């Protein structure tokens, strides 16, 4: 028994695509969104859209109205993970510099010119010197 060329490959019972109800392509052009989702064209539009959405008011379970930005910040602050809190603090008060300066005051120690083994040796010498200073005082 030869298969008809009108059947779908995935359907082995020989049902024609036109017989499928409520599935597949919608032939009614009035239901087609020809423009699609229109994304913001530039960063300023995106920022304006974010401002607009975050300024909307919603009501909580008790009926009190709050702005979405306030709800979002409250959730970030009260979350169990510190990522949200750190991000809010960095935004509000500025990011804490995390650069580590390993050079000494006279500039003779330049870690970028040393090999890792030399750095480890110098650190070991400093630790021994600190132990001796602590034991002597």
Can you walk me through this structure?
The radius of gyration is 33 Å and the shape is elongated. It has 137 residues and is mainly alpha-helical. 41% of the residues lie in helices and 4% in strands. It has a domain at 43-93. It has a two-stranded antiparallel sheet with strand order 1-2.
Observed structural traits:
mainly alpha, 4 helices, 4% strand
Return the average pLDDT rounded to an integer: 76
Strand order of the largest sheet: 1-2
Global outline: elongated
Uncertain residue ranges? none
As an assembly, this protein is: single chain
**Distance separating the two termini:** 100 Å
- DSSP strand tally: 2
| Element pattern in H and E | HEEHHH
Rg of Cα set: 33 Å
Structural class: mainly alpha
Briefly, what is this?
By secondary structure, this protein is mainly alpha-helical. The protein has helices at 43-55, 68-78, 83-93, 116-136, and strands at 57-59, 65-67.
Write the layout of secondary structure elements.
Blueprint lengths: L42 H13 L1 E3 L5 E3 H11 L4 H11 L22 H21 L1
Antiparallel strand pairs: 1-2
């Amino acid at each position: 028994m030869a298969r008809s060329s009108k059947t779908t490959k995935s359907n082995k019972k020989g049902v024609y695509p036109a017989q499928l109800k409520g599935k597949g392509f919608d032939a009614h052009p009035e239901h087609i969104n020809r423009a699609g989702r229109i994304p913001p064209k530039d960063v300023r539009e995106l920022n304006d859209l974010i401002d607009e959405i975050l300024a909307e008011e919603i009501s909580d379970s008790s009926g009190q109205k709050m702005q979405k930005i306030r709800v979002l910040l409250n959730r970030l602050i009260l979350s169990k993970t510190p990522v949200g809190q750190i991000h809010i603090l960095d935004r509000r008060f500025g990011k804490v510099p995390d650069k580590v300066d390993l050079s000494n005051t006279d500039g003779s120690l330049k870690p970028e010119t040393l090999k890792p083994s030399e750095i480890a040796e110098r650190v070991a010498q400093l630790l021994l010197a600190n132990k001796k200073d602590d034991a002597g005082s």
